[in-house]
Sequence to fold (932 residues):
Amino acid sequence: MGAPSWDDFADLALKRLAASGAEYGDIRIVHSTTQTIRGEDRRIASIRDNDDVGFGVRVLYHGGWGFAASSILSHEEVPRVTELAIDIARGSASIAVEKVVLAREPVHRDRVVTPVRIDPFTVPLRQKTELLLATMELLQAQSGVVRSSAGLWVCRDHKLFASIEGTRLEFDLLASSGDYTATALHEGRFASRSFNTPQLRRGYELIEEADFLGQAPRVAREAVEKVRAPSVEAGLYDLVLDPEHLSLTMHESCGHPSELDRALGYEANYAGTSFLTTDKLGTFRYGSPHVNLVADNTEPETLAATGYDDDGVACQKWDIVREGLFVGYCTNREVAPRIGAARSRGSNRADGWGTVPIVRIANIGLEPGRATLDQLIGDVKRGIYIEGHGSYSIDQRRYNFQFGGDAFWLIENGRRTHMLRDVIYHGITPEFWNSCDGVADRSHRQRYGFITCGKGQPGQSGWMTHAASHARFRNIQVIRGEGRS
Amino acid sequence: MTATGAKPWPKMTGREEFHFIAELVMKCSTADHTQVTLHDQDGGTTRFANNQIIQNVNTRRGNVAVTVAFGARQGTATTTDFTAGSLRETVKRAEAIARVSPEDPEYLPPAGPQAYHPCPTARSETVKAGPAVRLEYANEAIGQCRMENMSAAGIVSSSRATVGVAADSGLLAFEERTEARFSITVQAGDATGWASAAHRSIDRLKVQERTLSAIHKATLGAEPHELPPGCYRVILEPAAVAGLWSWIIWMLDAKSYLKGTSPFAGKLKKRILDKRLSLENCPGQADLLGVGFTAEGLPSTTSQWIHQGVLQQLVYDRFTAQAQQIPTIPTIEAPRLSVEGAAASSLAQLIKSTDRAVLVTNFWYLRPVNPTDLTLTGMTRDGTFLVEKGEIVSAVKNFRFHESPLHAFQRVEAWTSPMEAVTSETGKMLVPAVVLPEFHFSSVTRF
Fold:
């Protein structure tokens, strides 16, 4: 008799789940392989190859949840963990007042594979480390740059999802990214400028097409220019935000508040709740008519486009904000019925075999408008053009936010002039999005991903991609990000 | 609940088994240096919201990491599979990486044998606790909130872990660690109150006491007034102090200091804060979450970090420590902050002796704004109040702050003795509640 297959383990768990009297149960078996290379100050500081295998069993018994998981994938451990999950669910059910009822979902049988041109695990390690070393050399060749860092990251997830409803899904998913940073020092101040490839479900072609090395001299120059730039004067400015910067603004001020579990109070003790309460669905003016925020978990290469979520629900595309009106949430099978939805939006994801899936932000993107970047800037008398990510913070209901950025340029009389430093802007989410009066066209659209979106207790990392074209916001409060302003 | 608690737990990797794993790895390694790290954990979390259990989980996760080096070329591979075949394969993967890695000019072979001080890292009551105990505590907190017609959200978690580090240099460290956590956010209409605990012993979570404290905060939080942004005298509760001080600790990296990219650049052995403030590391303190050794197998140290306001230490990697001729690398995983002089007997006493101030329960989403002067931003959360003439007179809407702790802690007006503090964004610390004369709030939110 040969070694048991994943299907054998899944069947072992599902038989016990079916026999337990549970109304729902599933098993996820996951093998994650991650390679992380980190460089620091012209040296390769670490190369790490993680191999992580395990399984998690989820049970809904008489309206109460249970979940148990283990990194020991064996004929003895699968039944033990399954029984433990059932037992835990019975405990939850014993004190449940309001029973969980899942939205219906058709049975799926499918295999999802990330199409890649160059498998990053087959690219010689030497080629990767030489790229990072050459990048750091270029960064530190710039006078004024005192530190550098650079990294490459690739991850492959083999996953089997099987439920007692009959859904059985196989996944072979891959994602990659690369990044680097130059830090410049001037008169006791220091400042950094970064380059990030988008994190996408693509192979090593992502790195090859990113002009990774070619951008390094510009990034180094801009780090020095930034640290030597005049500090911003506090006041009201028009802001023109680039797609990378907007990915974070959208993530924090639209993505999180549109998670229905937050709106229902599930995250009240940690990540927080949401000002987008269910009474606002379909009636709340979230932004100006220029603002169309669409969740699209079907767009190829994006991080949340995995075919199906960890409820076994097929990925979908839907509106979150249509012409400024709040019209949709990110949901899973548990919370969707709470707003009268017949079907989940398919946004339930766990960050590994050892964690239970929770509602995560979808691939929410800002739909393109009709302007060009030059037109957006051309119509600004006194403003700031912002690229990339910097400091960010937002309250637990997602009203009051504050963002920095990676690089800032003063706009005067329709022209982008010199760099600024220490730019911080803050506002109240719906007021900010209602001040949007222009979005650039599709030719400006870029995608940026997140793999460290924190939520849940125990904490989990969510993965999603946010696409946008440049957008303009009028009369935003800017403060100086140093000392007291 | 059924009798889950009575079932035998999966056997954790013990000291002898770790020795066996380490020896097997070292035997099959052809590298010049080999180091093995074990982390084997079993634990779970019962999570509740809206007075309901929303998540109830238990996870067993074992991980072995193998780091090898040929000369100064190194590589690391990890596995969750502890079988002999998998461990051999992991060594091969690490060797394959190391063989093609560039030489690391900062590489150092693993440390040699070390002497470790015993550290109270494990408690038997936490080892024995399982889903049934966690559910019982969660139900207790929910019940108290239901009685007050309030809504509870929170967690009860417990875990046990075995951790080991071994190397062919003779380095060998192993210990068992337990940890339990409780946190609760109580909602009363639009108002919230919060409390949190972490301890090696699940019996020391004080679930009832902390739930009552959160209920009290939520009761006081009704109908908040809006105060304008600006500079205020503040009373910071221990959790708020821990939030600010965590960033001071995280920014103490020696390499950044030496390169000039640290907010502390040029300030070692100089006064950086109020001269009555001292920060020390206390790995043996039973109310902290100290450990016996670091991830590299170096012993944790009892050490002074800030003494009477003067910066005494930096956080060193081994290479930088050697280059700077630091013989013993100080550690800071169990911090205790104290203020010299007569302390108020309690937070209530601190409030009573304050004429006018904003009382802050906790901060949330703290992030650096300017790394040069360590200006931070963040929001107040789950209990912000106006104190006048020694009494809480109203709740106030939450503020965003824009402040450097290096500025705010230049003068501490009044304080308590150090108390337990842990938040969702910080590790556990012992810190006092303090009164600071000036703290800058830059904007106000809607609630």
